[in-house]
Amino acid sequence: MRVLTGIQASGKLHIGNYFGAMKPMVDLQEENELFTFIANYHSLTTSKDAATLKQYTIDAAVDYLSIGLDPNKTTFWVQSHVPEVLELYWILSKFTPMGLLERGHSYKDKVARGIPANHALFSYPVLMAADILMLDTQIVPVGKDQIQHVEMTRDIATKFNNEYGDIFTMPEHKVAAEVATIPGIDGQKMSKSYDNSIDLFMEEKPLQKRCNKIISSSTPLGEPLAWEDDNIYALASLFLDETQKQELQRRYKSGQEGYGHFKKYLKELIWEELGEAREKRAYYLSHMDEVNDILALGAKKAQSIAQSKMEEVRQAVGL
Ligand code: ADP
Ligand code: TRP
User: Which atom from ligand 2 is nearest to the alpha carbon of 7?
Assistant: First the structure.
């Protein structure tokens, strides 16, 4: 199956992103023809300044490569390196009724949160449709908030195909297997906006300090600890198989260890899980030319598909 995923680069990635989005995406490359791009035209709609947008784009590339996105299996590029998508975006705009965009949840949510309403924010779904349709995408893995965008893409493709013949492949969304919401150090959903996250690539000491800040109950030392609603346990269990979870539960119940021990254990688990990724990341950070080559090669591959699709489209509409 041809699968397309778009990454919105928005700064440092955390453990919630890792288990909720990054790992599931990387797993897809084993059995599909995976296309993944960094959606920097989309990020422009909410970007603070040029330097930040640039930095976030390159950081996302390095981080995804580090955690196992394999450029030999996956076509990986930066959206703006294949500008054909903007031509398709314009053409598709003609097949996008105003009412369709006016019903957009994501647009309405963003405006409600105080982001100024402008045309890019409003027409964001049309650009997403162009991303998807330009590459004959079959499957788009999405979070629930993005399902509507894939439905809009299907509406737009249907209108176009009805008028000009079967030019576009009809994509389907696939909601990724429900990953439980990963808690932050305060027990709420981990999010960079709540200042409760544990970042993926921290140095060892700051990582331990961050783990030490996890809020847990104040059971006195010597008494059994409840693992069921403990944040340290919830985070640690992400890294453990069934047997290891039971062993950790036993340690909680034994009453012989305090939360401090479990915070150390959690730090070890995070540190170990990301050992290989950290090494790869250090490598890529000192070989940025390689990262740029990977992205350039990915852009070339995506572009060659995009160009032949665009020829078909231009011819169909009479350009
Ligand atoms: P943040 O809330 O930190 O701004 P984003 O909204 O940028 O995170 O999320 C990027 C991706 O990571 C999304 O696919 C989202 O589902 C996933 N994700 C983020 N936080 C969590 C979490 N706490 N638990 C599970 N998945 C998460
Ligand atoms: N809108 C998506 C998000 O916020 C990112 C995205 C842009 C995307 N274009 C896409 C995702 C095409 C899948 C396919 O997460």
Answer: 5
How far is the centre of ligand 1, averaged over its atoms, from the C-alpha of 231 (Å)? 17
Dist CA 284 CA 282 (whole Å): 6
Residues 141/5, Cβ–Cβ less than 8 Å: yes
Q: Indicate whether 181 pLDDT > 90.
A: no
* Mean pLDDT lowest among 21-25, 275-279, 297-301: 21-25
Which residue among 159, 189, 245, 280 is the active-site one? 189
Classify burial at 61, counting beta carbons within 10 Å of its beta carbon; exposed 0-12, middle 13-18, buried 19 or more.
buried
Query: What is the Å distance from ligand 2's center to 152 Cα?
Result: 13
Tens digit of each residue's pLDDT (9 = 90 or more) over 102-126: 999 999 999 999 988 999 999 999 9
Q: Residues 294, 145: contact at Cβ < 8 Å?
A: no
**How far apart are the CA of 98 and the centre of ligand 2, in A?**
20
Sorted by where each starts, the structural domains of the chain and their CATH numbers stand as 2-180+288-317 (3.40.50.620), 202-273 (1.10.240.10)
Q: Which atom of ligand 1 is nearest to the CA of 10?
A: 7
Which residues line the pocket of ligand 1, CB cutoff 6 A?
10, 16-17, 20-21, 143, 179, 181-182, 189-193
Would you say 161 and 145 are in contact if contact means Cβ atoms under 8 Å apart?
no
The encoded tokens of residue 27 equal 């797993």
Are 2 and 139 spatial neighbours (Cβ–Cβ below 8 Å)? yes
**Cα(80)–Cα(292) distance, rounded to whole angstroms?**
14
Mark whether 110 is an active-site residue: yes
Strands, E assignment, 190-318:
none
Give the chain's largest Cα–Cα span: 79
* Res 176 pLDDT > 80: no
User: Which ligand ends up closest to the CA of 35?
Assistant: 2
The predicted model gives 166-172 an average pLDDT of 98
